[in-house]
Write a structure and sequence with these properties.
alpha+beta, 33% helix, 13-stranded antiparallel beta sheet, 29 strands, single chain, elongated
Amino acid sequence: MEEKLFLLTNNKGNYIALGNPEFSNFLGAFNFLPEKWILYKTIENISLDLFPENIINNYDSIERTSGKTGEKFCYKENDLIYEVTNYTGYINIDLDFREIYDFDDTNRIYEITRENDNLKILYKKDGKSLTINGVKEYINIGQWVKKEYPYDRERNGKYEFYIYKALKIKVHNNIKLFFTFNDTTYKQDACDTLAYKQDACDTLTYKQDACDTLAYKQDACDTLVTQSASGRSSLSNETNALLSLIMDTPAGIGIFAGFPWFFQFWARDELISTGGLIAAGKYELAKSILSRYLNSILEDGRLSNWYAPSPPSLGSADAIGWLFQRLLLLLKTLNSKHSLNKYFSKKELTEIEKKLCNSVDNIYRNYGQTGLIRNNKKETWMDTIPRAGYRIEIQALQLSMLKAINYISTLTKTNTSKYIKMGQELKKEVKRKFFVNGMLYDGIDEFENLDTTIRPNIFIACYLYPELLTKNEWKSVFSETLKKLWLEWGGLSTIDTNNPLYCDKYTGQDDKSYHNGDSWFFINNLAAISMYRIDKVHFNTYIKDILKASTTEMLSYGFIGHCAELSSAKELNPCGCLAQAWSSATLVELTSEVKNGNIKIK
């Protein structure tokens, strides 16, 4: 039987992911180095000489059990705490010190020394160290072992590594260990900074509000998970999956796009994910993230592809639209709850309106000479394929921005007739050029030819700007599109399954299948929301199957309790990044939509 995987974060960029030790080199314990904005791996595996039978995700801790034996993992600030109960035997500690993409095997020397109950593991190659507090007895192993990871091989990545089987720690019934990482480039010796001596153990509680155990800034505290008396959150699985990717960094509080390898604030991902925060009632955190991007708009009216530390050269045509769509959603939600004045002053609304208008004007000036909004190659969310030209979701985002101007003007009492007219003209032009013979197409290419390739981006367009078509027109478009994209397990292909480019199996880092077959959970969830809003009875089966597939994946596959990036088209088989923010965030939106609707999914 294959061991299940788990992921636990500390909301400061660190994570530990364990389970099947042969699965991937991205499993283990990783520490976030804020000065370099990189992850640093230390522990390859922590294991007992027992096979774990069950995993319990408590959101702020992970428990593994085998019979009466229990293991518990949790974070206190930057330190990993590991507790074993009802076990006599050894804990196996395997090491793999390196930056996440450092594959150089030269000069890899470990030195293990002991001082009282502290073991200090020094990695001489770069001076990093790990201190383990609470050790009474141990055995040095000191053995290098070659490992091959099948998941990494399937992704066409590096899959052969040498790991260091370092030591065995003796356990007599119960033990509690504290693992403290030391990056000597900006910290003191870990032994001197170890904050968790044994007398502090009794003060550590997991049932308090998470604000007491995480070092978030005060204005974000009310967005964290409140624990129930049982130690489990009262929030949904998908909400906790999203909250686990909220990170407090030197660049501010935000949402990492995903673990293991999307440990950045990607603008598109973070802004789409903010919709899940709004649906979950995390308004202050949503506002904080949106405000950060409001202050980062470029001269051309757009946003960089990611926020901090150094933006990539690849542009983003859609992040700016998602920024203002999410601001519109937040303002409408707060207004409906009569809470708008609690979160936004009149001055702030006026400033948002000013920045929105400037952004729209600059986008038209730089990308809207033909009346439609142009994007360059690889600037949409489908960034592994060119899609240069005029894409349907980019037009919908621009229409949504114009709609946001009109809405905010009702709050600020500003005359925005200019933008009302712009919206009317753009809507008319988009419908004329994209809605042909009863089908809404993916876009117009860079040579101004209609691209009739069937892709799921029309569902994003409906989610963003349902006013583009009538409900009957949307219903017809959805029905015809689903014939080309629907996957029987409950997802959508990213391209017509009859297209020569279609790949039914995930091909990994070569990107062949990435946007030509792979089924993305975030777009499946947005498609289900769109279908629910257009005709929840007619599309009931599709909505139900998408919700079931997304939920099943979260609870039974990959990192238990987290939402993966995508699945192969052929079958429900989660691949890519196994904890993806926008997958969980859009599932929060979908479950909220269905829960609040006046009809139940059959």
